[in-house]
Amino acid sequence: MGKKDGNKGQMRVIEAILAAFIIVLALSFVSFFATNPTSQKYETTELDKMGYNTLHDLDLQGILAQYVYAQEWENLGAALSVTLPVDVYFNMTIFNSNKTVINNIPISYGQSETFTNSKVVSSITYTLVGYPSGPTQFDLVSTYSPRVLVLQLVRG
After folding, report:
1. Beta pairing, strands 107-109 & 88-95
2. Residue 122 in contact with residue 156, Cβ under 8 Å?
3. Could you tell me if 92 and 84 are in contact, meaning their C-beta atoms sit under 8 angstroms apart?
């Protein structure tokens, strides 16, 4: 009699383990295919934050001012491409204080049709006021020459 009761207990443990495995498998399957709906307001806010943080980080490293004032547009585009996620396309235009476009070649990643066809385009304005006029970037004397950077971002 004792042997039969022991077998029932073992089967219940095995059944419980199999049931737990099936539940975990079903939940992981459902969560894998579930996608959150995107909101245009949320997407724009996310792109705004991402663009501003990218420009701010490049500015803190001294790369942004160096590339803008030396007019190294290819290097600036490469720095933005490396810093931003792969699925984010960008277009940057740089103006001086007279609202004249400075960059003679486009600084962009992605096709231009993406910006015209997309429902959500984020635009970030970032200002550089000048650059150091001494031999190092840490000199206290600077040349006042404002530049306005307009960065447009789109998810591709």
Report:
1. antiparallel
2. no
3. no
**Can you tell me which residue has the tokens 């792969």?**
86
Taking CA atoms, 32 is separated from 39, 43, 121, 126, in Å, by 20, 21, 28, 38
Contact 122/152 with Cβ under 8 angstroms? yes
C-alpha angle 105-53-123 in degrees, rounded to nearest 5? 55
**What is d(CA 118, CA 110) in angstroms, rounded to the nearest whole number?**
12
pLDDT in tens, the chain (156 residues): 455 555 667 888 889 999 999 999 888 887 777 665 555 555 778 889 999 999 999 998 888 988 998 899 999 999 999 999 888 899 999 999 889 999 888 889 988 788 788 888 889 999 988 776 666 655 566 677 889 999 999 987
pTM over 0.85: no
